[in-house]
Design goal:
Elements (H helix, E strand, L loop, with lengths): L1 H53 L5 H16 L6 H17 L1 H5 L7 H14 L6 H12 L20 H15 L5 H17 L5 H14 L3 H13 L17 H14 L7 H13 L29 H16 L7
Helix pairs in contact: 1-2, 1-3, 1-13, 2-3, 2-5, 2-13, 3-5, 5-6, 5-7, 6-7, 7-8, 7-9, 9-10, 9-11, 11-12, 11-13
Length: about 350
């Protein structure tokens, strides 16, 4: 009898110790994630405020992605600058209103469908309802690339605008959210064409795979097809835990952040899966002391350079983009609190 009890006690101890250690590791990991997010938020806020101060135009990297970060952060209990958040929404709205007549004429604004759809995404994140301006923008998006199988990007600025899958994700999302009742027949027809193009596409880069998967998510593509995309992205993970833009390149925060967000948004892989944990740890380990991540720019500049308060000089725009996606990836590992 005593022998049995003693054996049971040893077994209980053997089982409990690892569980206790794992719990401790989880607490430490969560603390690291929260610390990384807390360091990143103020710098992203500074960059968004700087961009709105220095330029009248809307930017995808400093308005849309900042609003995404701040929206996800406040849902998880992080303190944000509410006045700055609203400033980015107002800045976006004013930009679209300045181009209203051009949108109604089917011409759009600088940046074409990318600017238009990213701007509507920004308004969506803020919970803004459809109105005459959003209807004019969706009308322009329906005029754009008529006769083609899908929407084409306005320029090539790797990595964030190096694939039409990125453009199609944001355009389709904008039409789904802000398309008017009168536009629905055309929206249905255009999205059906884009859907087939996406299904037929053989991705050539991480960016292409990421936004093909994200398109599959918003289009409700069959789960086995989505799972194949998830598996292909997992196979591209590097030994350091990160992902690279192309196989011959090193891991960076942009590729890693966008991949992790796509995987976590798919709900086909759990946050505690080893690949996700390794990816998150890569982001924690590569974050700079000031809260940023440095991503090297490969785009040819075509706009006048300006400072926003984010580091890295002419690398700052892709670096703030990469830092934003990295921060969102970290945020998605935490539960919402409201």
């Amino acid at each position: 009898m005593d022998r049995i009890c003693f054996s049971c006690s040893i077994l209980t101890l053997a089982l409990c110790v690892p569980i206790s250690l794992l719990a401790g590791e989880q607490v430490e990991h969560t603390a690291q994630v929260r610390s990384a997010i807390q360091k990143s938020i103020p710098l992203i806020e500074t960059a968004s405020a700087g961009s709105a101060r220095e330029r009248k135009c809307f930017t995808c990297h400093n308005q849309a992605l900042a609003v995404l970060v701040l929206d996800e952060a406040r849902q998880r209990g992080f303190k944000i600058d509410q006045a700055n958040f609203q400033r980015q929404i107002d800045h976006t709205t004013k930009h679209l209103k300045r181009g209203l007549e051009n949108y109604r004429a089917g011409k759009g604004q600088g940046g074409g469908p990318d600017t238009a759809s990213y701007a509507l995404w920004t308004l969506e994140l803020a919970g803004q309802k459809p109105d005459d301006v959003t209807t004019a923008v969706t009308g322009y998006l329906l005029e754009r690339d008529k006769g083609r199988t899908h929407w084409t990007r306005n320029s090539t600025r790797p990595p964030s605008m190096s694939s039409d899958t990125n453009t199609n994700y944001f355009v389709i999302r904008a039409l789904q959210i802000y398309g008017s009742e009168a536009q629905q027949p055309e929206i249905t027809a255009r999205i059906a064409k884009a859907k087939q193009w996406l299904l037929d596409l053989k991705p050539a880069s991480t960016e292409e795979r990421v936004f093909q998967l994200r398109c599959f998510q918003i289009l409700g593509i069959d789960e086995p097809i989505q799972q194949t995309s998830v598996d292909q992205l997992l196979k591209l993970q590097n030994r350091d835990g990160g992902w690279s833009q192309l196989p011959e390149m090193k891991s960076d925060a942009y590729a890693t952040g966008t991949v992790l967000v796509a995987l976590l948004r798919s709900h086909l892989i759990d946050v505690d899966q080893p690949a996700i944990r390794k990816g998150i740890q890569y982001l924690i380990d590569t974050q700079q002391d000031d809260g940023s991540w440095h991503v090297i720019s490969h785009a040819k500049p075509f706009q006048t350079y300006f400072e926003t308060g984010f580091p890295y000089g002419k690398d700052q725009f892709i670096s703030v983009t990469g830092s934003s996606w990295a921060t969102v990836a970290l945020l998605l590992t935490l539960p919402e609190v409201n």
